[in-house]
Input
Amino acid sequence: MTPSDEERAQVLRRQFPVLRRLAYLNAGTNGPLPEVVRAAVEESLRHQYRRGRIGREAFREHQAAGERVRELASRLLGADPAELALTHHTTEGMNIAAWGLPWRQGDRVLTTDQEHPGGLLPLAGLRRRLGVEVDFLQAADLAAEPAGAVEAAITPRTRLLAFSHVSYRTGEVLPAAAMIRAAHGRGVPALVDGAQAVGAIPVDMAELGADFYALPGQKWLCGPEGTGLLYVNRRQLPHLRQTFLGYLSIRDLDEAGEFLPQEGARRYEVGFLFQPSLAGLAAALELFLDQVGPAWAYRRIVALREEARRLLGGPGVEFLTPPEAAGILSFRVKGLDPGEAVAALEKKKVLIRSIERPSCLRVAAGYYNSQQDLERLADGLAALRR
Ligand SMILES: Cc1ncc(COP(=O)(O)O)c(C=O)c1O
Output
């Protein structure tokens, strides 16, 4: 970590009062809330409270809040705002995309052995309700030969490749672009769970080529919870069906219930979101795009991860995170139960999490974390081992 990066991080840390109190090392669940997000949420709520929530102006403001989020997120992702639907979280985006395909019994979906329940459960739901079969790729095979592994696993009944861009367990960055190209070569679209990627590593829709990409607001972007987005590539808009329909998903509705969908990905939005959440997410995106910068955040996050590896390493410590990783560092410590260690560290105001399968500890340091945060973690673990 260079001194100038450390200085810049120190300036940005002022946005996060909670960092004065806690070694907050779990962006993978919820990032800390920045001051600008608190202010935007409070201001929006106060405005609604004072002025009321009805009338044409209020409606326009609500629409504008959504447009602002779409516009900022499109800059972050290299997408068109019309390709973005507002959601409440990654899981909702994964469900919208998974349930929107024209499944038939006996169709197959291809996924990996690294999936979070938020990505796996929509597929498990398809299996249970519609008789869709779920096939699993092994991350180790993908790392060795991404295109070959995908091609070998695709059958004539495979209708979707659905996988995490970054493993929530180990932080491994999956070879997403090569996997997607291989799937496309066989006429199979790709749905990507970007929960541990966006805000941690640079993510560009054109480079990736994904058909669908779901992401959260509350993790590495430090937005409010209850916020997220689903990217739907414009070529998929005519094909991805609307599973849920509501006032916001249509342009026109007649007495008989015939309707015209919204033109873009807004067709997958059903009803109004909480306006202060949208204001908060917009503030988080502005902070990230204009003051932090995705490229700098990535460099900083990788440097912190490797510094954590250096500080925590030693006899009895086994790292599960490979070199090609995003912001997560997973490890086991001989003699320490991960769940108990997390609880004991929390008492010392050091926040990380444990993972069940494989049983390990997980550190997820954001750009705002410092050398001291990592040292507090290392000291805390050393004390537990004594
Ligand atoms: C890879 C992955 N997918 C999905 C989720 C669920 O995210 P959300 O709460 O935004 O639905 C998580 C949360 O930790 C995750 O790590």
Summary: Residues 28-29, 89-91, 116, 118-119, 164, 168, 193, 195-196, 216, 228 surround pyridoxal-5'-phosphate (CB under 6 Å). DSSP finds 13 helices and 15 strands in the chain.
